[in-house]
Specification:
single chain; two-stranded antiparallel ribbon; 25% helix
């Protein structure tokens, strides 16, 4: 191989020390070249600092060890329906573990005489599409809540929102029962399991549950519960009744 020889250091004859070696320049015998690898352990540190801890390899990932990964929770779609101004948006917002998606629009004078939220309500906005929220029941079950618009002119959206749902919570205002008839009729025609939840505005009902069941003309097989749309635990209990109703129907259909 071609190389360049420095003119300051003449070439050494065969068998002699290199003219530019350490022995030729500084005297003494040439040092023994180190062997490949580490023949002895490195000397201990001379400073007083604490020696670093011994290296440990990182723990193996589940994929490397073959450990099965956690199964994601089963998604369940639940509708929250009812008449105008009965507390559907409040119900979804009270229980949702994420910031709920709402489509609220300001009520205008054009809605006077058309959208009546009731005398006790201070409602100034209305849902024009839907509400959406979710809540994890346990490691195996997660609820996705879809709140329907309450006005009759948005009724065409109910068929799309109900597609794929396993059950529904029909929210009722005991002081305006007539506003809830269309929702009950819809789910009876659709054959979807539903629970009637009477929202206790101001913590009280205008009528007792027996009178409400009679006025709504619902059978004994339809659960009727009282709840507070502003209270998370109260909403949870009402949704658990919907789940129980849906599970009961699925069990009966499997046996048939």
């Amino acid at each position: 191989m071609d190389f360049v020889q420095s003119p300051d250091w003449p070439a050494a004859p065969p068998g002699a020390l290199a003219a530019n070696s350490a022995a030729a320049r500084y005297g003494g015998s040439a040092p023994t070249p180190p062997s490949i690898g580490r023949a002895t352990a490195p000397p201990p540190p001379t400073h007083s600092a604490t020696a670093p801890p011994p290296y440990r390899p990182p723990a193996a990932t589940p994929a490397a060890t073959g450990t099965p990964r956690a199964t994601p929770p089963i998604p369940v779609k639940i509708l929250v329906a009812g008449g105008f101004g009965v507390g559907k948006t409040t119900t979804v917002g009270s229980i949702s573990e994420i910031a709920p998606l709402t489509t609220e629009a300001e009520m205008t004078t054009a809605g006077i005489g058309v959208d009546d939220p009731g005398q006790r309500s201070g409602k100034t906005t209305t849902t024009v599409a839907m509400d959406f929220g979710c809540v994890t029941i346990d490691r195996s079950l997660k609820l996705y809540l879809f709140g329907t618009p309450g006005q009759t002119r948005f009724g065409f959206m109910w068929d799309d929102l109900a597609r794929g749902a396993l059950g529904a919570l029909v929210v009722v205002d005991s002081a305006r029962l007539d506003d809830c008839y269309p929702a009950i009729d819809f789910f009876e025609r659709a054959g979807l399991p539903f629970v009637v939840g009477v929202n206790a505005f101001d913590g009280r009902l205008a009528h007792d549950l027996g009178a409400i069941r009679w006025a709504l003309a619902i059978g004994e097989h339809v659960p009727l519960v009282q709840f507070d749309a502003r209270d998370r635990l109260s909403v949870r209990d009402a949704l658990l009744v919907v789940l129980d109703r849906a599970l009961d129907r699925a069990t009966r259909e499997k046996r048939a």
